[in-house]
Amino acid sequence: MSSSLEEDRRSIREVDDKILRLIKYRLELAKKIGKRKKERDLSTVDLRVEKNVIEEALRLGKEIGLNEEFTEKVMNLLISESLRAQGRLAQGRSGYLYGMFERVQELESQGEKVVKLNVGEPDFQCLPTVKTAAREALGEDKDIKYVSAAGIKELRESIANMIRQKHGLKINPNQVLVTLGGKFAVFSGILASVSELSRVLLIEPYWPVYEECALLAKTRIDYVHTVLENDWRIDFQKIEEAFDAGTKLMILCNPSNPTGKIIPKEELEEIVQLANKRNVTILSDEVYDAYAFSPFTSVLDTACDNFIYVNSFSKKYGMTGWRVGYAISSPQTILRMQKIMQISATCVPEFVQMAAIKALTIDEKTVATFSETMRRRVGIACDALRGLPLAFKKPDGGMYVFPEANYEDFNSNDFALKLLSTQKVAVAPGEAFGDYPRCFRISLGTSEENIKIGIERIGKMLEKWKG
Ligand code: PMP
């Protein structure tokens, strides 16, 4: 009995030996293929090829009696490792964004005055009534204690009511999670939805936080690249290719940071249909919906089966520092996200939530003044940019312009660094948002005067760049 057990164990070790040697051989082959692709100037990732590889493996798996999910996991792991061997796995791009932020802080601490067109923070002040609500909630003899990780009942109900009124969608409070800003809704939404062996789809250019969260979840990331020449339009065929390869979660930023693009209604509906057909969840980050200058359709206005809707009090109510936002999804997904809140931040402070309840009572006309200000700034920025050797699309919404320089050898990171050191103007380099070395992002979260001065100095820098 014991000797046959030993024999079986030895056999397993022999099988492991064979598996590992075969994997090593597979990685060497992948490297060779990578080299050949480079020589022929072909892109490393080819989702159609991947789909065929996975399909063939699934067929074989079925034939020999392997569980389908297991086969898919193994194949995703092997493919990801092959991409790593070919040097094509995402590294994360937030350093471009937050690195610039740190540089500006450093310059300012040395007494320099910087025109900050880099940060995604509007200079709007929240209404005094919101502050009063927080002060009252803090009250002299009130104990400030932990509250529910999901958010206090009154705020979840207020959010559900607001969504019901705005989108005509019946939402239960147990479908609402109150989060530390929209950022935590994105973070917990991604971590609650994907695992090491699933796939996330990002539309380039993207807010780098999505990619960093997906990297943290160790999930495979696929990208659909969009370009200015095509009006930042999303190619449905590319989405289908990615879905064919097994996307679990697709992330949309609507209106977009950094392009300001709003996805037209018909296009959003088509994307939703594709996602529904393939059981893909859409995480729709709509924190900029308060600044929409063209007709805007939310994922909540579509027939999307599986969604995680993200919004925030930061932009709409000028409450960036309060750290309060929310997510809406199925009760099951909300529970998974709530758990992430429980084991990390515990809860959003109660007095902040009381202030948020007050913010929700502010009438739309008052709130619209922020949007009007942003619209005016977009106009001013675009007028100023028109005189420069830059191409851009006028934003439909949001608080950014994402121009592209018409120079062959333009490198936006070098440009942003030189612009900061010589002209004392900060912008975010295009590489922060994907493969966009000729673009940079201008934030309009500052005064009209700063925007004009900043763009004038960008013009000077561009002249020098060419000269
Ligand atoms: N999503 C996007 C696209 C953003 O640009 C930001 C802020 N820069 C957020 C979410 C998060 O904002 P907050 O956490 O302040 O709500």
Q: What does this molecule look like?
A:
- The model has no long low-confidence stretch (mean pLDDT 94).
- It is globular and about 80 Å long.
- Helix content is 51%, strand content 12%.
- It is built from 15 helices and 14 strands.
- The chain folds into 3 domains: 26-89, no CATH class; 94-124 and 365-466, Aspartate Aminotransferase, domain 1; 144-361, Type I PLP-dependent aspartate aminotransferase-like (Major domain) (Aspartate Aminotransferase, domain 2, 3-Layer(aba) Sandwich).
- It has helices at 2-39, 47-64, 68-85, 94-109, 128-138, 153-167, 181-193, 208-216, 236-244, 265-278, 331-343, 350-359, 364-386, 412-423, 448-466, and strands at residues 115-116, 176-179, 199-204, 220-225, 247-253, 281-285, 307-312, 325-328, 390-391, 400-401, 404-405, 425-426, 428-429, 440-443.
- The protein has a 7-stranded mixed sheet, sandwiched between helices. Strands 10-14-13 form a 3-stranded antiparallel sheet. The protein has a two-stranded parallel ribbon with strand order 1-12.
- The chain is an alpha/beta fold and 467 residues long.
- It binds 4'-deoxy-4'-aminopyridoxal-5'-phosphate.
